Amino acid sequence: MASEENKLDDVYDAVIVGGGVAGATAAYRLHNVLSKKKGANNNDGCKVLLLEAKARLGGRTLTESVKVKDGQEMFDLGGQWIGRTQHHILWLMKELGIEYYEQYTLGSKFLCLGDCKIRKYNSSLPKLSFMALLDLGNVMLQINRMGKKVPPDSLHKCKQAEEWDSMTVDTFIRKTMWTKEARETLETAIHVIFGATPKELSLLYFLQYGNAAGGCEALVETAKGGAQEFRIKGGAQQISEKAAEKIGSENVWLSEPVKLIDQSNPDFVTIVTESGKEVKTKRVIMAAPIHCVENIQFKPGLPMDRHYLAQRMPIGHLMKFIVTLKKAFWRDAGLSGEVVSLGGPPVVDGCDTGPIQLVYDAVTSNGSPALVGFFSNSRQWRKIEPSVRRREVVKSLVDYFGLEADDIIDYVDKDWAEEEYNGGCPVNIMTTGAMTLFHDTLRKPVDRVHWAGTETSTIWTGYISGAVQTGLRAAEEVLNKIDPTWTQDGLLDSLDKKSLVPSDNF
C-alpha cells in the first residue's frame, strides 16, 4: 500500500487541537516517531502542530503559585493524582523526567453524613453502623461484579447493556441499598468522582467507568493501587508543558481557538482559527473536550451521532480549594488530613449544606503545609462571594481539625465552570441511553479527524492516565495512516497490557 505523500511543502503531517494532557501526549508521540522515521535532525522533516484555544497548556490540569510560610509554592487546582496501576502516565512522566511522591494517609480520618455528626476512625472502612457497612460492602460487590460484564472497548459483549443504560445510578442505589448511612457515603463518593449526582449518570456508564479502573474502590482510594496514591512534584500542568516543549515552541500555538475544520479537499485538511490563521494538514487529532467540539464548524458536517453524543455527555462540575497553613498540625495530632462529608448543616443563604465535601493533606514535597479540598453542592457554592467561601471553608476546617486551622496563610479556590474552553470538570459524563445509542462513535475517526481525550480511554477513563492512553492511541492511528509500512514499537499495546497491574518500581 502506498504511503500518503505531502503534495505541498506547507502541509503538516498532523495538527492536534487541544493542548491538555491528551493533545500534548499525541504531539509528543508523533514528533518522536516521525523524527526517527524521516531521519530528521532536530525538527526538520517532522511537521506536527499543536493548537490550543487558551493562553496556556494543560487543559483540566492547572498548577498555580500560592503563598506558603517561606514564600510561594506550586499547587494543583485541577487534576493532580496518579497511581501505580496507571502505566500510561507513569511512562510519560519517566520520559519527561517528572517525579512523584506519596499522598500522605497516616492517621485518623473524619466522616460526616446527613446527621451532621463528625465520626473519627482509623481503618480503611468508614465509621458506619454494622448494618450500613454490610449494606455498603454488598453494593460494592454487586457493582464490581456487574462492571466486569461491561468491557470498556467491547460494549456489545454486555448482555445487560440495554437494561443498565436505561437506568440511572440513583435508581440502582435506591433499589439495592437499604441504609441511609451507606447510601449517603456512596453518593458523596460519586459526586467527587464525576462532579455529578447519581441521578445524572447512566448505570451502564458508571459500571464501565469503574471497570476501566479495575474496580470502583480504586476510584476513591489513596491506598496502594488507588487513584489518589501519588502526587506529582511541581504539579500536573507541567506534563502538558514539558511534552509540548519537545516539538518546539514554533509548533505550539496558544490563544488560537479553532473555528473551522474543512475536509472537502482530498489532498489535505484545512484548519482555520478565530484569528484568521489557516493551516493545512494530512490528519487532525481532536483533543478538545467533547462539548467544546460543538463550537467548531466542520465541512462536511460531522455525523449526527457525534452531535447526539455530545448532547448526552454534559460536563461535570467541581470546585476545588487550597488552604496553606503555618504548620501541618494535623499530622502532629495523629490525623491524616482526610475528611469525607455531605457538607454539614447550611451556613449561608442559597446553599443547602456547608462547603466541605472532601479534604486531603496537601503538604508539598518541600514540606509546605496545606490542605486541599472540594466543595459540597458546588453548583450552589459557586454563586457565593469568594470571601464568604473562604470564611466558611476555614470555619468548617476548624470544626474538624481545631482552632489551629483558623491560622491560615493563603486560600485559593477554582470554579471550573468559569474556565473558558472547559466550562466544567472533571469529566464529561454519560446520561441514560448515551452508551447503547452512541458509544460506538466516541473513538471512531471521521474521515481524517481522530479523537482523543480522557473520555475516549478504555483504561482509567476520566483520569490523567486515561488522557495519555488516548493521546498515544490517536497518534498511532495517524502514524498508521501516514505510512502503514512503518513498523511500530508496540508501546501502546505494551502499556495497555500492563495497566491495572501494580508496578513494582516504587
Could you explain the architecture of this structure?
The protein is of the alpha/beta class and 506 residues long. It has 17 helices and 20 strands. Strands 1, 2, 10, 11, 12, 13, 14 and 20 form an eight-stranded mixed sheet that branches. Helix 3 crosses helix 6. It starts with 10 loop residues before the first strand and ends in an 8-residue tail after the last helix. Residues 1-7 have low confidence and may be disordered.
In short:
The chain has helices at residues 21-37, 87-96, 130-147, 161-165, 169-176, 180-194, 203-211, 216-220, 237-245, 290-293, 304-311, 329-332, 378-381, 386-401, 434-438, 464-482, 491-498, and strands spanning 11-17, 48-51, 63-68, 71-76, 81-82, 100-102, 108-112, 118-121, 230-232, 252-253, 258-262, 269-273, 278-286, 297-299, 319-325, 335-341, 356-361, 370-375, 408-415, 449-451. By secondary structure, it is an alpha/beta fold.
